[in-house]
Amino acid sequence: MKAKETELLEFMRTAQQFIIPVYQRMYSWDIKQCEQLWNDILRIGSNANIKAHFVGSIVYIHDDIYSISATKPLSIIDGQQRITTITLLLIALHEILHDEDEFIGISKIKIQNQYLLNPYEKADTKYKLILSQNDKDTLIAIIDTNKPTPSEESLKIKENLRFFREQLQKHKNEIEQICIGLNKLVIVDIALKRPDDNPQLIFESMNSTGKALSQADLIRNYILMGLESQEQTRLYEKYWREIEKEFGQEPYEKYFNNFMRDYLTLKTRNIPNENKVYEAFKKYIQENKIDTESFLQDLKAYSEYFCNIALDKEKDSKLQIAFRDLRELKVDVAYPFLLEVYDDYKNNIIPKDDFEKIVRLVESFVFRRAVCKLPTNSLNKIFPILTKDINKQHYLQNIEAKMLQKLKSRFPNDTEFESAFMTRDLYNFNKRMFYLRKLENHKRKEFVDTSAYTIEHIMPQNENLSPQWQQDLGENYQEIQEKYLHTLGNLTLTGYNSEYKDKPFTEKRDMQGGFKESPLRLNEGLRQIEIWNEEAIKQRANKLAKEALDIWRCPTLSKEILESYKPKNKLQEIYTTKDNHPYLTQGKVKELFEALEKEILLLDSNITREVLKLKIAYKLDTNFVDIIPKKSNLKLTLNIDLDELDDPKAKARDISNIGKLGTGNTEVKLEDINEIPYIITLVRQSLEKQLGE
After folding, report:
1. How far is CA 165 from the centre of its chain?
2. Residues forming beta bridges with residue 129, ordered by sequence position
3. Which residues form the DUF5655 domain (predicted)?
4. pLDDT tens digits, residue range 158-207?
5. Helices (DSSP H) in 524-585: which residue ranges?
6. Domain span including residue 390
7. Are 513 and 660 members of one domain?
8. Nearest to 309 by CA among 388, 382, 255
9. Domain boundary at 175, 206, 237, which?
10. CA 224 to CA 231: how far, in whole Å?
11. Contact 580/593 with Cβ under 8 angstroms?
12. Nearest CA-CA partner of 274 in 257, 255, 252
């Protein structure tokens, strides 16, 4: 390695050519960076006391670092952004200068023949700076008017060149100061030589914070930097360039980083930290000793799947719509799972119809959980392993069974979902336009764009209801308004929100543009209603909730099928129910215990049961519920604090300060078999707390 301080313009003038290797990222400076450089040039150009201004280092590979020939190109490792930006400024300066102008050694002809072109060379060697791909073609077309403009131009090059053109027009009278400022720019010139210097190690140390380059850039450089030039170009053109085209210019880094994280999650079944994707990638490659071309081939296939799912590139119309719904729900955590299923679909392991059903299954599962307010903090751990150890001959059925059996990915049943959908506050629900759009377009062939409409409260939000509204709602109008205002039955869509205001229902119904004239299906049932009251709200909510059950379906598998997929519970019989728990051998308590235990074991296939001397414990990592049999009832201790428990019927009590046999601090009694569904909701919360932790 050899390093020295030098003036930037002198460095650019004396070098024969700068080549940006294919593994380098595309030109990516924004207007913000260009503006900062421009302001620095103006400042130092107008201040005689400033002799030089350091703008960073430029690192390149050269065969002989002690005798750098002006006839050999320099392969840039670091410094592309600065060299390219100064080149754009010089192009704009070349355009504004007159033939006779010369300032501090800068003139129109010198810019052309010393900084932009090698006038006596041909083909690519004619150009002083060779960028990569459409950056290259865009820059060459700007410098050489005989070259065609590429079909896909580099947005950054065009935008930044436009910026410098505009600034030079504004500062026409300060050209000399600008040229002085350019001459004061100083760099550290760092030359590397192979094989003495390892460019990859130097590159990583320069970008060790991860701020200079994105995770995607680091990965691309790792794959391609160590290869010979021809092999670099071949693999880049065949694979990486195609990946870049799929992701596009603007969102490339953001989406590629997300994709790479999902890809590694799928391959390793572990989720890399967002800021350590590069480290996870290197570990994956090194531990599995994966051939470079095989890896790129696999990466290219999965990147296409990702773009189809996440970037609306899917060609099949049904899958395209299904993916759009998932994106609106923001189900990113499911992408590693969907990437694997997509690969199986592409390899004809699963038919398209089943693939679409799985996508819809994910949508239903996530939406139902959101409506039922179930925790989401474990979903990112569940989706990556959902396909683990499944029988792909019965692909769809396997996935359905896993979702129904595992609490971590528990599928709310129809009763639970329908009840929550009808009664919860859906106006302040962050997916409100999603579910209204889906309800409106259910079974429609002609899609209605609901984004043109706003949400209307049929019974108004105004706390001071008009006399007519008070009369319609009845003497308990305040309680009815408070209970139903933001619920499903009272919400609809309209284009006449400002006209409706707080008018009585019949006026909203019969006015021009009112509910009677509305083309929306959501408003069909409002045409015949004479009075909007509690009963009308409940009936409409019930009707829409039934439609929701059809849109967001829960899998229906027989008990026999579910049982065939369920691993046998690991029962640790230190004691036995027969010998140590006589209350469980006959009568009412036996019936209560058997029915309750059946429901507990259905919560998760990994639950283990341990029969102890005075209790029966149910656990995953630790006990989440203990059953203590009594003469006429079952006493349950839940491993969750009372203030964490959602217990609207107030069945539980705090036992943290009294002696107890169970593990937890909350106790509840079961005395009637009809209470089991409610008791199970309390038990489930204790288990979900353990899973969340």
Report:
1. 38
2. 18
3. 588-686
4. 999 999 999 999 998 999 999 999 999 999 888 887 655 556 655 555 55
5. 534-551, 559-565, 577-580
6. 229-416
7. no
8. 255
9. 206
10. 8
11. no
12. 257
